[in-house]
Structures are given as C-alpha cells and as structure tokens.
Automatic annotation (TrEMBL):
It comes from Roseovarius nubinhibens (strain ATCC BAA-591 / DSM 15170 / ISM). Keywords: Membrane, Transmembrane, Transmembrane helix. The keyword Transmembrane applies. This is Cation/multidrug efflux pump. The chain crosses the membrane at residues 6-25, 66-85. The keyword Transmembrane applies. The lineage of its organism: Bacteria, Pseudomonadati, Pseudomonadota, Alphaproteobacteria, Rhodobacterales.
Length: 88
C-alpha cells in the first residue's frame, strides 16, 4: 500500500510539473501568434487590450482544456497496466 501511495504522490508531482511546463509553453506560443498578428496591422485599440482579449479567448479555448489530459491519460494507462498485470 505504501508503494501505491508513493507512486500516486510522485506521479502527481511529476504530472503537475509537466502540466505547468506545457501550459506556459502553449500560452507563450499563443502570445507569439498574437504578436505576429498585431505586427501585420489592421487592428483597432491598444496592443495591451488586443493581447488581453486574445489571451482571454485562449483561456476559454479547447486547447487549454486538452492540456488537462496530462493528468488523465497517464492515470488511465497506469490503471490498465496494473489491472492487466494483476488480474488478467
């Protein structure tokens, strides 16, 4: 039982680090795309307002929610491996 608890705690920590890195990387990519779009021109308002609106849209996007798969997919894979190893 201690081994399972250790796996869960360490796994959660590692997955959290991966989630944070992926989230920051994806947000910086989106920021770069918004910056390139601003450089092309044709936008009204200030640069900061344009970036805030674009990043607010990104926060509500499907891509942002899919990054949560970092937690779901490894848990499912480990659960299947444990099941197949012990009960099949």
């Amino acid at each position: 039982m201690f081994a399972l608890a250790r796996l869960v705690v360490i796994g959660f920590f590692v997955l959290t680090v991966i989630y944070i890195c992926l989230s920051l990387w994806s947000r910086s990519v989106r920021r770069g795309k918004l910056n390139a779009e601003w450089q092309e021109g044709g936008h009204e308002g200030s640069y900061e307002a344009f970036m805030d609106d674009g990043l607010r849209d990104y926060d509500r996007s499907l891509r942002r929610k899919l990054i949560l798969g970092v937690y779901v997919i490894p848990v499912i894979i480990v659960s299947v491996i444990i099941y197949l190893t012990n009960f099949h």
